[in-house]
Amino acid sequence: MKELSFFGNYKVKIVFTKEIFPLLKEKNQREKICITDENLYRIYGDRLEEIFGKNIFRISPGEKSKNMGVVLKILEFLCEKRVSRRGKIFGFGGGVVGDITGFVSGIYKRGIEFSLIPTSLISFVDSSIGGKCGINLKNCGKNYVGLFNHPSEIFFDFSLLSTLPQKEVNNGLFELIKYGFVLEKSILETFEGNLTQSELKKLIKISIQKKISVVIEDEKEMGIRKVLNFGHTFGHALEKVSNYSLYSHGEAVGLGMIYALILGKNLNITDEEYLKRGIYLIKKINGLKLKRKHRWENLLNSMSMDKKVDRENSLLFVLTPTPGNFLFKEINDFTILKKTYGEFLKWI
Ligand SMILES: NC(=O)c1ccc[n+]([C@@H]2O[C@H](COP(=O)([O-])OP(=O)(O)OC[C@H]3O[C@@H](n4cnc5c(N)ncnc54)[C@H](O)[C@@H]3O)[C@@H](O)[C@H]2O)c1
């Protein structure tokens, strides 16, 4: 077992292991509860039961579970199991399980300890790190209710990714390439070729390091951490206008990054060559398509409702002037956003 610990403002134990199940079994915790989803339970249920017995709460897979009803059921489950403040919750799953686990752990009895075992590519490279957790609010938007709450440990076991369906691998690749556009240009270079398993592993580790260093610098997203929202302003709006049913989070971010590249070009920030290369690399992941022509007014309305908007009548976009670099642009002239949407429809 290799253990890397990062201290400073971000004091979370990062563990890389090849034997997650024996490792969890060894953990000498009196009250251990696991939160996972039905898909993962189907694959790993026997192994999890060896560790957690009947203390396993299963949610339905996917975004729709990020709601208060599910949170309430988990809180009641914890109460029925008489979990005390010394108990500990283990979130075994992707970003949805992780976001819910962190939220529930933060509010049950005013907070109990939790650990994360990411199982999807998105949770490896992004969601497990940084302490953001929460749920969606139906008429308002993504992750509208939540906390900054860090796990005590994150266990990364690459072998868990072997059961991830290709569609979900692609979703993670969108979040991974994001780091290439705004923080680490070598990631884009690797995406030019055919990504091998060992290259992917290397990119995952780079992303984990990048995310941790951004979070250490700006835990509460008052400044530089906003860079990780590249593609998310438009992406979240797409997710919301389609009621979280047409696009996965990764696909929405992929489309959002294309929108941000075109917006950059329209603002003379991103040059034509970089725009074309960027769109090519994003589409190379899975031939991304817009599933419906969404009404511009609805998209704009959703972007304005996003919880990341902190000033009335202006929207903050993360743009990329050159590979691996970023800048923030506050936009209050919405005509350029509408024009960009028109061009976006032609590009995809
Ligand atoms: N907290 C953060 O900082 C942060 C950052 C990025 C994304 N997110 C959130 O993460 C969520 C998206 O993450 P996600 O794509 O991991 O979602 P997810 O948890 O729904 O997982 C995607 C699908 O993959 C399946 N799956 C996961 N691991 C598997 C495995 N090893 N084998 C087989 N199937 C597996 C799940 O059952 C699910 O069907 C969104 O809700 C997004 O808002 C949060």
Description:
- This protein is α/β, with parallel strands linked by helices and 348 residues long.
- The chain folds into 2 domains: 162 residues, Rossmann fold; 182 residues, Up-down Bundle (Dehydroquinate synthase-like, alpha domain), CATH 1.20.1090.10.
- It is 48% helix and 17% strand.
- The chain is built from 13 helices and 11 strands.
- The strands form 3 sheets. A 7-stranded mixed sheet has the order 1-2-9-6-5-3-4, sandwiched between helices. A two-stranded antiparallel sheet has the order 7-8.
- Strand 3, helix 2 and strand 4 form a beta-alpha-beta unit.
- It starts with a strand and ends with a helix.
- Bound molecules: nicotinamide-adenine-dinucleotide.
Topology:
Layout: E1 2-6, E2 12-16, H1 20-26, E3 32-37, H2 38-52, E4 56-59, H3 68-80, E5 88-93, H4 95-107, E6 113-118, H5 121-127, E7 132-137, E8 141-148, E9 153-156, H6 166-182, H7 185-192, H8 197-217, H9 232-241, H10 249-266, H11 272-286, H12 296-305, E10 315-319, E11 327-331, H13 334-347
Parallel strand pairs: 2-9, 3-4, 3-5, 5-6, 6-9
Antiparallel strand pairs: 1-2, 7-8, 10-11
Helix pairs in contact: 5-6, 5-8, 6-7, 6-10, 6-11, 9-10, 9-12, 10-11, 10-13
The chain binds nicotinamide-adenine-dinucleotide.
